[in-house]
Amino acid sequence: MKNADLLKIAASYGDPVYVYDSEKIISQFQRLTNAFSGVKNLKLNYAAKALSNLAILKLMNSLGSGLDTVSIQEVQLGLLAGFNPEDIIFTPNGVSLEEIEEASKLGVRINIDNLSILEQFGNKHPDIPVCVRINPHVMAGGNSKISVGHIDSKFGISIHQIPHLLRIVELTKMNVNGIHMHTGSDILDIDVFLYASEILFETAQNFKNLDFIDFGSGFKVPYKEGDIQTNVEELGKKLGDRFNEFCKAYGKELTLAFEPGKFLVSEAGHFLARVNVVKQTTSTVFASIDSGFNHLIRPMLYGATHQILNISNPEGRERYYSVVGYICETDTFASNKRINEISEGDILCFKNAGAYCFTMASNYNSRFRPPEVLWHEGKAILIRERETFDDLIKHQVDVKDLFAIKDIPKKEKVGIK
């Protein structure tokens, strides 16, 4: 997208605003598909939690993607977006048996990540096929908050509990048709990924009725020009060859599945916000924008980096700014970053704002969540309206006269004798 397109969107729909480029999403989907072209059966299940707007889900469905969901609500969104139930996999963590049963009634595939629920579900529903999530005890990911495959993680069934897992399967006579793992996000070293994959292949040999093996995702995308990223082409060649080799030994053509989220939508997203104040202190020049971590929490929560461009003055001389928000506590997007000279009223563009940005937005400080716009085939399409005050109080209950100010009887004046 060009700066002129983004500025026009900001002028038309107001700011702050999220903008998504469908062409980038499509190209990322095709890139990952092409990387694993050597595999006969490939299934990409888009991770809905990254960006769950219905328009984005419908775009993914049109590309032939499946859907990876982590809540019953995401399952319902997927069905509403037109996904076939069999193309949706439900991979929750720590949810109740009732929620898993509710999802299974909708016809989606079930992925269970703990022995307790596995045994309960197997006893009650032995005829419903399930996938099991394995914890390979591999530390991978950008930081501890998004590394989910290590030994202390709450996710998955430990590889050291495989004998217990097999006893449950044998006693309940349940059908395990898939094996799954996810080690974390922002994985750069494909050798670590391949190492974890070998653990999954070894585990898969214990199950005779598999239809698919799901290797999770977590591919790293570049956050700035020249940044490092996961070499999915190299991974596709190495893991694809190893997968084909495993299928031959297993005696069956299985499906290789992934659940990419950030890889597909991160780079497609742009977050636009206006500069309210340029404030110089004794040591810092602050550019304060009309947004905060209520709209984009990743820098404060994960220490994530988002490249910030001044699209109102792209040719201006570079100066150092700390870009901050309007939330009433420390609210910093970037510290002492080189950005083209900023004036009050300029529009700043935050790159890589497609994944885990709007979906983690809130109404903190009683602020409205921003609109979302899809840039598709050269046109801007509104896919979520900006919230209003009515939205803010929509589900609050008016307690009417519960705290009405009561009249207090006046005391008679006491005269002084």
From TrEMBL:
Domain Orn/DAP/Arg decarboxylase 2 N-terminal: residue ranges: 23-266
Amino-acid positions noted as binding pyridoxal 5'-phosphate in the UniProt annotation, renumbered to this chain: G218, Y356
Source species, domain of life: Bacteria
Binding site for substrate: R298, Y302, E329, Y356
SUPFAM superfamilies for this protein: Alanine racemase C-terminal domain-like (SSF50621), PLP-binding barrel (SSF51419)
Entry's Gene Ontology molecular function annotations: diaminopimelate decarboxylase activity; pyridoxal phosphate binding
Lyase keyword on record: yes
Domain Orn/DAP/Arg decarboxylase 2 C-terminal: 18-354
Pfam families: Orn_Arg_deC_N (PF02784), Orn_DAP_Arg_deC (PF00278)
Keywords annotated in UniProt: Amino-acid biosynthesis, Decarboxylase, Lyase, Lysine biosynthesis, Pyridoxal phosphate
TM regions (residue ranges): none
EC number: 4.1.1.20
Cofactor annotation: pyridoxal 5'-phosphate
CDD domains given in the database record: PLPDE_III_DapDC
Keyword Amino-acid biosynthesis: yes
Subunit text: Homodimer.
Entry-linked NCBIfam families: lysA (TIGR01048)
Chain's role: Specifically catalyzes the decarboxylation of meso-diaminopimelate (meso-DAP) to L-lysine.
Family (UniProt): Belongs to the Orn/Lys/Arg decarboxylase class-II family. LysA subfamily.
The protein, known as: Diaminopimelate decarboxylase
Organism: Pricia antarctica
